[in-house]
């Protein structure tokens, strides 16, 4: 008998056995039992489950193919505990709506057919990349998962994890796992394969290809050279732009999903109705019919990537730092703050839009309006501190590219520089204006603390942080206009606070 459990759900879990109890309209669009694995996905977090897995299930429903997903989790067992007992099934809860109301949809996705915990099942991971049935490896491992220097695009060979993987342990870094898997694939003569990066990095496919090449070049020559040759012939690295806002799931979301399902689902992910995927059509061994279900397959992803990273993610980070400093817990709360909302609208229109080479027929003004609406979606509880994490890994592609392009054009990108200043204020104070603590969750958190500890004026804080070459590169910090705008923004945020600084910025 179903009775409410912890969190108000139901005691019976979602699984293949209980699926018959779910409203037929909400069930997977393909029979999960009949779906073989063709894709290994590294980083099976909420984003993948709400994005590529949904597109993939739809593509199989439209055109068939054994494109089930083996989802790999890197460090945390949580996903295994959520999805393992559920036979990989989970629901996607869609929340549309803004100030004018909400509308909710829920569907169960069955595309994830296998799960693997990389830390404990290294051999099985290598074997699944080497399996002939696997034809694509997709990745959402976050910016920091690449362990590269964004300024040079090179693998950080001195990174202890990379060095240990090169020395031959069961690989723990993403690039190490891929290369060892490819090595096994070559030995097994299992044929060509595609590695498809789905992380928010510009030219993510080319970046991944170079990092794989760097890893091979650092192996003993006899081992690395032949492998690199085989990779050049047999492996493709298309780039892709991914977009869907997927906040961390809350207990309220789980309760809501349980009510709609009549079952307990520990793997539910929550998202917006919008989803977009633009993929470079360069596959070594086939792909799902993603083009039949709205994915844009194209020869050149770069203009879409720049547009999305600079307009959406650049705005997101700016909203997150200004919003968190001003005490707004969620993106939609920050959007209700008139000063912050105006800064974001002007950032897009004045600083970012002039830098974009938008694809033909693309209405970039409409895209900006749509973004502002998406940010205003009050039904999504997207925490500002979630977006604020890993700033050192995100700033280059989100804000610094815009700034460099505008400076080169002789412009003064004040709003993008205010975004950088807000990041500086956030990481150097680690507290909101009301004194409440803010987490500085960043792989360089230690360095950020050391650099700013003794800096006692906004200019000193800015100079200390601008010395981070792996973030700012060598040229930008030497640009007097850039430094002036960042210091000015930081001085205003420090002396006057977010409300006055945002008001001044849009005057
Ligand atoms: C966000 C992204 O957490 C973040 O940094 O900016 O995850 C954003 O929600 C997605 O890129 C939207 O496609």
UniProtKB/TrEMBL annotation:
Location of the Mannitol dehydrogenase N-terminal domain: 38-291
EC number: 1.1.1.17
Mannitol dehydrogenase C-terminal domain location: 300-493
Catalytic activity: D-mannitol 1-phosphate + NAD(+) = beta-D-fructose 6-phosphate + NADH + H(+)
This protein's record includes keyword Flavoprotein: no
Matches recorded under SUPFAM superfamilies: 6-phosphogluconate dehydrogenase C-terminal domain-like (SSF48179), NAD(P)-binding Rossmann-fold domains (SSF51735)
Pfam families the UniProt entry points to: Mannitol_dh, Mannitol_dh_C
Origin superkingdom: Bacteria
Broad enzyme group: oxidoreductase
GO function terms (MF aspect): oxidoreductase activity
InterPro entries: 6-PGluconate_DH-like_C_sf, 6PGD_dom2, Mannitol_DH, Mannitol_DH/Oxidoreductase, Mannitol_DH_C, Mannitol_DH_CS, Mannitol_DH_N, NAD(P)-bd_dom_sf
UniProt entry keywords in alphabetical sequence: NAD, Oxidoreductase
Signal peptide segment: none
PANTHER family: MANNITOL DEHYDROGENASE 2-RELATED, MANNITOL DEHYDROGENASE DSF1-RELATED
Family as reported in the entry's similarity comment: Belongs to the mannitol dehydrogenase family.
Protein name: Mannitol-1-phosphate 5-dehydrogenase
